[in-house]
Amino acid sequence: MDDPRLVEVVAAALARHALAPHRLELEITERMFLEETPETVSRLAALNALGIRFVLDDFGTGYSSLGYLKKAVFSRIKIDRSFVSKASDGGEATAIIDAIVKLASRLDMTTTAEGAETRAEFETCRDLGCARAQGYLFGRPMPAAAAQQLAVRGHIGNSA
């Protein structure tokens, strides 16, 4: 968000690749709001005006504040792995995930369970209402070329 040309670069990339703006999601961490400047607010507004969607990453860690949810128009909240990894235990983490999912729903946002590594974690998060999940259960990090080959073969985009 520090680059004064960010909005211009993103708009050019969307045009160059013929990508509809609503298909691009930019992940923003809470840390960005701790370092918030008027320029950052202006860039977020300009990106939002283009139709870019924002995802609040690592929600529930660090200096979480519900006020961040009003600072940008988020379409999705990513629930931090620290909660997902304990989801199937049925304790506090499950209650926190449930609360985040309900809050997101009331704010017209979806949720992603970050770091699902076991079937039990995935199923618990799904049962609690998480719309998406990501993690090693679905695949390991890979080079861009390998990811592109998967996408071409139709294996990406059908995630849980």
Question: Could you explain the architecture of this structure?
Answer:
- The protein has 160 residues and is an alpha/beta fold.
- The protein is built from eight helices and five strands; from the N terminus they run αβααβαβααβαβα.
- It has a five-stranded parallel β-sheet.
- α1 packs parallel to α3 (38-50).
- It is globular and about 45 Å long.
- 24% of the residues are buried.
- The model has no long low-confidence stretch (mean pLDDT 85).
Question: What are the SSEs and their pairings?
Answer:
Elements: H1 6-16, E1 25-29, H2 30-34, H3 38-50, E2 53-59, H4 68-71, E3 74-79, H5 81-84, H6 92-106, E4 110-114, H7 119-128, E5 132-134, H8 144-152
Output the keywords.
single chain; 160 residues; alpha/beta; five-stranded parallel sheet; 5 strands; globular
Broad structural category? alpha/beta
Question: What is the straight-line distance between the termini?
Answer: 30 Å
* Outline type: globular
Largest sheet: 5 strands, parallel
Please write the string of helix (H) and strand (E) elements. HEHHEHEHHEHEH
Low-confidence stretches: none
The total of helices stands at 8
Mean model confidence by pLDDT: 85
Share in helix = 40-55%
Output the strand order for the largest sheet.
Answer: 1-2-3-4-5
Counted beta strands = 5
Approximate strand percentage: 15-25%
Q: How large, in whole angstroms, is the Cα Rg?
A: 17 Å
Summarize this structure briefly.
The chain has 160 residues and is an alpha/beta fold. It is built from eight helices and five strands.
